[in-house]
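Human: I hope this is not a bother. Would you mind checking the protein record under this note? Thank you for your patience.
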Amino acid sequence: MNQMIKGLNWLSTFMDKKVNSVQQGGLCVACLSADAFNGLCQPCRNELPVNRWRCRCCALPLAFPSSELLCGDCLKRPPPFDTSFVPWRYQYPLDGMIGRYKYNGQRKFGRPLMADFNGLLEKALHSGSITKPEALVPAPMDARRRRQRGFNQAQDIAETIGGHLKIPVATGLVQRVQRVRAQRELNREARLANLCGVFKVISPAPERVAIVDDVVTTGATVRVLASALREAGAREIQVWALARTPG
């Protein structure tokens, strides 16, 4: 554990070329071990918090052993999407890796997660636990925020998945048509109100789509986005994300 903390604190300035390598070889992005696969050594990979017990619809982590039950929120207010594939909880050390990737543009921390995510998606599709969509829809980002950050992490993840699984990425299908306050500052109810009318689907949506994002927090963004896609013709909507916050 301490080894991982040390690596995450100062790795970003050290040997980018080697760290950025994927597959067997190169250095672990978290602890600098030379025995890395897809950018992580096995001990650091074992530290990733698996979202094992979760709501079968929104993937909210549950406190008891079940992956078949619905959480209270999905029972009271069924979301406009059908299911979610979110393999990790947004906790240490994954939260730090996503933060460095998302806010600091250090993509070497995102690449190992996306590589493992692709492998998990492939297994889930093969087993039939999820179905293959016709298109991936990355959660749109405000244009000003994208210029500041330099990239949209949801689009980055979607393009990586799409390239691996041969699924088209519908980058321009949905647009943000108004600016809103940063979602991080708001609770769930305020997030939903904040996003009212923010997304516009500019052409008919495919019948089967998967919304792609990095982290699902309250689920407000994917609810609003799924509603817009359903109104535009989508009939089966999944949510694919790296991580889900515990509550």
